[in-house]
Amino acid sequence: MKMIDPFTGKTNSSKPIKRKDNWYCKTAYDKKIYVAGGDRELHATNRAQMFDFNTNTWKEIAPMNTPRFRAALTTLLGFLYVTGGRNYSGNILNSTEKYSPITNTWSFVKPMNTYRSAHESVAFNGSIYVIAGEALKSVERYDPQKDTWSYVAPVHSNQYAHFGSAVFRNKIYILSDWGFEVYHPENNTWQKLPQFGVGGGTKLVSMNDRLLAVGGGQVEHWGTASK
């Protein structure tokens, strides 16, 4: 695993992750990186791991209750939440699990209204937003206090899968080779933004008051660069 400073281009190597699977989900919390699930030899796994920057080591943590890949993982109020994905049979899931780093346990919470895979999730204004996914436009918001899911405004395209999302200046941004959009919470609307050339799988990172597009595969759709 390499850590990259996006402003200087300098890299620092850390201990590599010991996984042979792909399509796992990941998030960062409390100076640690968490990864969960994945597709190993055409089978979903419930394995979960944590990387501690203080010790430069990977550690196995409690496995999820449900094996899944192409899920989404994010953090909110001291917990990690994994949503959706696909199971052993390749069926799309709507189940949601909550992980406590303190007790090292996973527990089920209210499932999403919609079955989702290859979607994105972000923590925003005390809630979790799950966005789009394979052949979906819908967006849902999870209220951890009430343990309820409710729909908010949908995105403009049902082609968002394996894309990037980030919270930046109190708005949610999503980016893929199919589009670039921003969510305005004050009026519950998604706004299309000028597209620029990115490849499939591009991720968004909000850092130091900048919104960065990172990685991605072959560019399939090109537009005008956003300034």
Describe this structure in words.
There is one protein chain. By secondary structure, the chain is mostly beta strands. Helices cover 0% and strands 47% of the residues. It has no helices and 24 strands. The strands form eight sheets. Strands 3-4-7-8 form a four-stranded antiparallel β-sheet, with no helix packed on it. It has a four-stranded antiparallel β-sheet with strand order 9-10-11-12, with no helix packed on it. A four-stranded antiparallel β-sheet has the order 13-14-15-16, with no helix packed on it. β9 (72-76) and β10 (79-83) form a beta hairpin. The radius of gyration is 17 Å and the shape is globular. The model is unreliable at 1-11 and 218-227 (pLDDT under 50).
Structural class: mainly beta
Report the sheet-strand fraction.
over 45%
Q: Mean pLDDT, as a whole number?
A: 86
Subunit organisation of the chains: single chain
Q: Report the order of strands and helices.
A: EEEEEEEEEEEEEEEEEEEEEEEE
List key phrases describing it:
mainly beta, four-stranded antiparallel beta sheet, globular, disordered N terminus, disordered C terminus
Nutshell version of this structure?
By secondary structure, this protein is mostly beta strands.
Secondary structure blueprint with pairings:
Elements: E1 2-4, E2 11-13, E3 25-29, E4 32-36, E5 39-40, E6 43-44, E7 48-52, E8 57-61, E9 72-76, E10 79-83, E11 96-100, E12 105-109, E13 120-124, E14 127-131, E15 139-143, E16 148-152, E17 164-168, E18 171-176, E19 179-184, E20 189-192, E21 198-199, E22 203-207, E23 210-214, E24 219-221
Antiparallel strand pairs: 1-2, 3-4, 4-7, 5-6, 7-8, 9-10, 10-11, 11-12, 13-14, 14-15, 15-16, 17-18, 18-19, 19-20, 21-24, 22-23
